[in-house]
Each structure stands twice: as C-alpha cells, then as structure tokens.
Amino acid sequence: MLPSVAVLLTRNPVTLRPLSAFETAYLQYRDTLALKASNTKQFSHDHFFKKGSILQQKWLALHNSLAHSSPASPSISSKQVEDEFIAAVAAINETVEKFSAKDADVKSLDRKLADPVFLVVKSKSTGKWSLPGSFQQIKQGELLHEAAKRSIEESCGTKMETWAVGKIPIGHVAKSEKDKTFIMKQLILSGQVDLNPSVVSEHAWLTKEEMKEKLGKEDFEAIQDVI
C-alpha cells in the first residue's frame, strides 16, 4: 500500500499583531523619557539611541523642531506627546476592528491577518476535515513534492500560486506500518481556492487554535508538532 501525502498550506501573517496593554504603556513611557531627555542640555543622543535607528531619527526630528521654534512659541509637552500616542493607538485599533469583521468568514484568505492561517478541507466521501491531500495516495513512481502539488490542484484547483518550502516532508502521521501520511509544507503566494466538488465539499483558513476544534483532538494531536 502506497503512502499518502498531505499539504500544510500556510498563509503567513500580513500585519503586526495588536499591541498589548503592557506594550502600549511601555511605548508611551519610552516616548515620554525621550521628550524629557531632549530638553536636557547635557543629553547626548549618540549614547542613548542606536545610530541610524528609527528612534534616533524621530528624536532628531523632534529636537530640530524645538531648536527652530521661537522663544515665544510653546514647546512640546509630555501631555501633547501622550495625546498623539493615544490618538495613534486609537487609529490602529479602529483599523483592527474593521478587519476583525472579516475574521468570521473562514473561507476568506484575508482573515486573521496578524496570525498564520492554514488550509483545511472537508472530504466529500468521508465528511471529515483534514489537510489537503490527506485522503489521496501517492501514485507509483511519484515523488513526494510532485504528489503534494498534484493533490492541491486536484482538490483545490489551479487558481492558487504556491511555493514548496522543500522537497522533503516536515513530518508524517503513521496510523499503522502500512498506512502513513507524509506532510509537505507549502506557502500560498497569491490566488484563491477553487474547490473540486467531486473531491472536497468545503474549505477553511484556520489558525492553529481553530484547527484543533475543526479537525478533532486525535487528528490535531497527530500534526500539531509540525504546525
């Protein structure tokens, strides 16, 4: 009995994750220190900022704006810096909220942009959720990476541009000595899933935590170490 091949098709994170409360407070505290330091005559920015860093450029821009202000004009206060920072965080959170509306659509590749998501499909014959290709055997004389490419195209169409991370499997699942499934990793670069209704009935792009619920405990535990 020839083994099977499953494809771990991944979409890497597209955006940075939202800042935690601690990270937000730290950045606010750091900006306040930088402002206070800019008003200290003995301060040497070369000892405080890494040369060429974004933070150094930010400080230099702030320092230059203060140096060219007239004596009568008010200097930038820590309250102003705090207000600007809060406004920036609010704008980021507003953007995150807009994208979160897409998170409910598990068929959309544009969901959970701050997390990696993985493609899972539902077999029409068995009704079980699994990685693409898990229910297709390797053909005689076929290499693993060739079988992985074929299984994706046969189940999810040819409208996706994918990139194989390597030609060797990242792991395998062995239900018995003669029943093995090798897992090949691929990244999606562009395109969308175009299901073959004769092979699969549904698909979903899920995070690792969501896969545990969709695949079931036993099947998830078999592949969780390679996700």
Automatic annotation (TrEMBL):
Single GO cellular component term: mitochondrial large ribosomal subunit
One MF annotation (Gene Ontology) recorded for this entry: structural constituent of ribosome
Domain of life the protein comes from: Eukaryota
One Pfam family cited in the UniProt record for this chain: MRP-L46
All residue ranges annotated as the Large ribosomal subunit protein mL46 N-terminal domain in the record: 4-74
UniProt keyword Iron present: no
Main location: mitochondrion
Keywords, alphabetical: Mitochondrion, Ribonucleoprotein, Ribosomal protein, Transit peptide
Gene3D superfamilies: Nucleoside Triphosphate Pyrophosphohydrolase (3.90.79.10)
InterPro entries from the UniProt entry: NUDIX_hydrolase-like_dom_sf, Ribosomal_mL46, Ribosomal_mL46_N, Ribosomal_mL46_NUDIX
Protein localization: Mitochondrion
Family from the record: Belongs to the mitochondrion-specific ribosomal protein mL46 family.
PANTHER family attached to this UniProt entry: 39S RIBOSOMAL PROTEIN L46, MITOCHONDRIAL PRECURSOR-RELATED, LARGE RIBOSOMAL SUBUNIT PROTEIN ML46
Protein name: Large ribosomal subunit protein mL46
Organism from which the protein derives: Rhizoclosmatium globosum
